[in-house]
Amino acid sequence: MKVVVLTPRSLAPVSRSIIEALKNRGATVMKLAPARVALDLNNGEPDMVKKYFTGGEPRGAIVRGIGTSKTKKIYTRLGVLSIFEECGTYLLNSRACLEVATNKALTSCKLIKHGVPTPRTILCEGFKAATEAYKNLGGDVVLKPLYGSKGIGIMRLTDEGFASNIFYNLDRLDEVFYIQRYVEHGNHDLRAMVLGDEVICSMKRINTTDLAQPWKTNVAIGAHGHSIDLSPELKEIAVKSAKAVGGEFIGVDIAETKDGPMVIEVNSVPGFSELQKTTSIDIAGRLADYFLAKLKR
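RE: above sequence
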């Protein structure tokens, strides 16, 4: 069986582990970078179809990201995923899921609609609107890039003067504002890995390196993982979050607050290098088994 791993970084550890797991199960794996896709739209059938879909294969692709380029490139690549799906290719995760989960505002809306607890959030444009949002959210907020991951560009704002300066300069750069009320959760949060209808493993992420910003718990900036078994309530929240964004393989980040658990991030292209260190479960293997079983149906 021929399958695709769509990834901008095929040599990244997680991508390599997925590719190896698929090969070990007898699949022929094509590595395809989003930036390398070229479609001849004047043909009756796109160039990609002629090259890669002969005989109805590949029947499926695991999507490991569409890159972090400018918005127009992101939407172009989402369009390519649509063409994949129109050609009968099963995508894990789907184009619709990636479109929602890569946009933090859409993710927040889906979580709220599905009854998932999440911090109060305001999306707006312009310096004045951002300043008002800061005040309405209590003067202690987290400003996040609308698109982004790994904690890059996230900042906590607790001083009105400093916040106004940030909003003013970002507005001049034509940025939009995704502003979330800060919820206290110490120096840790929880990562749940959802596959299908279940949480297959989880960890507590603890920041012991950045004492100035202990609330930042991203592994990419130094947090460490410790094995933890989630309660049934937390597992239900994680699975509900994955379903809210239409995902099948999803990383859900949950903060334990005085007001109860709150989902603070949903990742449709979850990394799991740190999580793998905390569990005996072969995450890439479980993903490959799930994916290949779907293709055989």
